Amino acid sequence: MYPRLEINIKKLRENTKIVSDICHKNNIDVAMVTKVYCAIKDVVRELAKEDINYIADSRIENLKNLKDISLPKILIRIPMLSEVEDVIQYSNISFNSELKTVLELNEAAKRRNIIHKVVVMVDLGDLREGYFDENELLNSIDEILKLSNIKLIGLATNLTCYGAIIPSQENLGRLVNIARNIEQKHNINLEFISGGNSSSLFLLNSDKMPKGITNLRLGEAIALGKETAYGKDIEGANRDGFKLVCEIVEIKEKPSIPIGEIGVDAFGNKPVYEDRGIRKRAIVAIGKQDINIDSISSIDEHIDILGASSDHMILDVTDSINRYDVGDKVQFLLSYGGLMSAATSKYVYKEIIY
């Protein structure tokens, strides 16, 4: 069935091994982030055979689906008050930035007679989640440590996802210093100091990761073989562990400029066209309702993606050495946004290749 997301387990396991080896050589644990491919259980089960330490996801629904996989589960999105019961039941660790929420988690943990582990988020300038004011952070830590059914295990930060702030020795060094101050003040050990996501890998490769960072949360590095600070390929990793395969439903020679007065398209945009004469155009059966068209690229480098409506994507195949016909398949690589949309879309079929 098409359009189809092909998931190559062998290549993804190779990526998982590469990045976990990099981290473990530097005494850093790996939390494998599974959200970009919606934590497909059969995929997670296979990748978890590699040497990773945690499974992490932003949706408690995904972690619930993975409950039979024995690795510790981390909820990396700040919990909603409305989901605290599920957070306690289906995650071993949750990332938090609001004392009110931690208090509710404590009450839910009491009802189940369990200890729930929490990691407190620190905002180092990316301006997404976390305590920005250090005094507010320290005051909340004081209160969290009084709770009977909550165990504070560490601190974490998020960088690049919103404000695009690059991880550095300076900002991650500050995270470590804050952790050390908390340890000294309260005579405790914080075992989990998470220095961000795939954007922090370049610090390891350049030997600039501050001592004291004990964990990274890696999603794109495993799924797409890229570090995300500068968008560079990871040496030896596969970019095509996930591939989008689409079927051609029409192929005809047509002008490169629409004929008539140009208004706005179905999405309210006024398009601009370049006159390249008569071109061979192929239509594949996928559109903006299915995926994020701007986040894919053709594996055939001589194909140009001209655009898409909700249901059709138009390709210029004039310069390709392949003689495409109706029914032929065209393959695409995906960026993070493209993979996320393809995995989430119910209109894109998923095929796991072992």
From TrEMBL:
The Alanine racemase N-terminal domain, residue ranges = 7-222
Reply yes or no: does the keyword RNA-binding apply.
Answer: no
GO terms, molecular function: alanine racemase activity; pyridoxal phosphate binding
Show the InterPro entries listed in the entry: Ala_racemase (IPR000821), Ala_racemase_N (IPR001608), PLP-binding_barrel (IPR029066)
**Can you list the GO cellular component terms from the UniProt entry?**
cytosol
Required co-factor? pyridoxal 5'-phosphate
Q: What is this protein called?
A: Alanine/ornithine racemase family PLP-dependent enzyme
Task: Tell me which UniProt keywords the record has, alphabetically.
Answer: Isomerase, Pyridoxal phosphate
Q: Which Pfam families match?
A: Ala_racemase_N
